[in-house]
Write a structure and sequence with these properties.
heterodimer; A: 194 residues; mainly alpha; Nitrile Hydratase, Chain A; 2 domains; two-stranded parallel ribbon; globular; B: 101 residues; 4 helices; 58% helix; 0% strand
Chain lengths: 194, 101
């Protein structure tokens, strides 16, 4: 269907749902703004930075991601069940949703287009090492890759390795280094120095 | 099978603070996303119910653009729960089209 045709159809849908009192356009505006402008991946980055500087928090985060993330009290709707998987020098984690687009929206915002593409969804399962390399992450052959398939029950968030040489950085500075892609597992967190 | 060229990995991976990434290719996609969240987060439609429909629509035609599958899934849920029929939507769409002609 053309963009115009789709736009008209969605407009019709919204009008009808609004007239029936099923949605409030202001709520729709607020949700769009929340997920596209406010959450972004910033909430997730704060969680990761905290886990890097606070071993007790890291333990809580890995034990119960949903509860540990709730400690931040991020505004907006609560998080669905989030499981955090930690990278180590030997194990690299990466997240996919083979069936649809499950994504830890409450901490990462809206999923990028490529995450939802059929190619990513199938290839990350079939040949993760090759796909990661094509996406710019060339892992040592000795590093084991674990692919986590998100579902309605569990949405995964990767706890990346803290880059070397960042001992002097504050929690806030560390949060700025953490990218969305690193928390999906298709990139590493890098620090190029002050 | 080489389907990799369909994965857009060329885009920059923005730092957490810069949020300007384009995740919607058209305004209607963003509206649809917001509408669906409004329906699911107010519990009128359980997210899991929507997700099941979305999986079905994606599986039925992998070549269909993602957000069109999403729209079809939302309409499925609304029709199944008798909140809105496809005919209702067709009728209103036709009215909107006439208005602009």
């Amino acid at each position: 269907m053309s963009d115009d045709a789709m736009a008209t159809r969605i407009e019709a849908l919204e009008e009808l749902l609004t007239e029936k009192g099923l949605v409030d356009p202001e709520t729709v505006d607020r949700l769009i703004d929340h997920y596209t402008n406010r959450v972004g991946p910033m909430n997730g980055a704060k969680v990761i930075a905290r886990a890097w500087v606070d071993p007790a928090y890291k333990r809580r985060l890995l034990a119960d991601g949903t509860r540990a993330i709730a400690e931040f009290g991020f505004p907006g709707p609560g998080a669905a069940c989030i499981k955090v998987v930690a990278n180590t020098p030997e194990i690299h984690n990466v997240v996919v949703c083979t069936l649809c687009s499950c994504y830890p929206r409450s901490v990462l915002g809206v999923a990028p287009s490529w995450y939802k593409s059929p190619a990513y969804r199938s290839r990350m399962v079939a040949e993760p090492r090759a796909l990661l390399r094509e996406m710019g992450l060339d892992l040592d052959a000795r590093v084991q890759i674990r692919v986590w398939d998100s579902s309605g029950e569990a949405r995964f968030l990767v706890l990346p390795l803290r880059p070397e040489g960042t001992d002097d950085l504050s929690e806030a500075d560390l949060a700025e280094l953490v990218t969305r892609d690193a928390m999906i597992g298709v990139a590493e967190v890098v620090w190029s120095g002050p | 099978m080489n389907t990799f060229d369909r994965v857009d990995v060329a885009g920059p991976a923005p730092p957490p603070r810069s949020n300007g990434e384009v995740v919607f290719e058209a305004p209607w996609q963003q509206r649809l996303f917001g509408l669906t969240l409004a329906m699911t987060e107010t519990a009128a439609v359980p997210w899991e119910t929507f997700r099941t429909r979305l999986i079905g629509r994606i599986a039925e035609d992998e070549a269909r653009p993602y957000w069109e599958s999403w729209a079809a899934a939302l309409e499925d849920v609304l029709a199944a729960s008798a909140m809105l029929s496809t005919t209702d939507v067709d009728t209103r769409r036709n009215l909107l089209v006439q208005d602009t002609e």
